[in-house]
Amino acid sequence: MAVKYTDGKNIYYVSGILGENNFAVCKKAINSRSIGHHKYKSSANKTVHTAGEAQDYLDRIAEKKGWDEY
């Protein structure tokens, strides 16, 4: 199950981008009505082939930065 996180300002989540089998950590403002995905800016945030890989990366970031589950 995908877990989303928040820093109080943004929501961070795993999203399939650029077609099939391409996943990355994305973010959007909490009250944003945008349906587009904005990739989280980090040199380590690579597009990966499974949602699980992207979720593992997001979990590590959230723990390091002290983000809460959303």
Side by side, the strands of the main sheet go 4-3-2-1-5
Query: What shape does the CA trace take?
Result: globular
Helix content: 10-25%
Secondary structure class reads alpha+beta
Distance N to C terminus: 13 Å
Gyration radius, to the nearest Å?
A: 11 Å
Regarding quaternary structure, how should these chains be classified? single chain
Percent range for β-strand residues: 25-35%
Let me know the largest β-sheet: 5 strands, antiparallel
Task: Give a structural overview.
By secondary structure, the chain is of the alpha+beta class. Helices cover 21% and strands 29% of the residues. It has one helix and five strands, in the order E-E-E-E-H-E.
Features:
70 residues; single chain; 5 strands; five-stranded antiparallel beta sheet; 1 helix; alpha+beta
Give the SSE map.
Blueprint: E1 5-6, E2 10-16, E3 23-29, E4 38-39, H1 51-65, E5 68-69
Antiparallel strand pairs: 1-2, 1-5, 2-3, 3-4
Summarize the structure.
The chain is built from one helix and five strands. It has one helix spanning 51-65, and strands at 5-6, 10-16, 23-29, 38-39, 68-69. The mean pLDDT is 89.
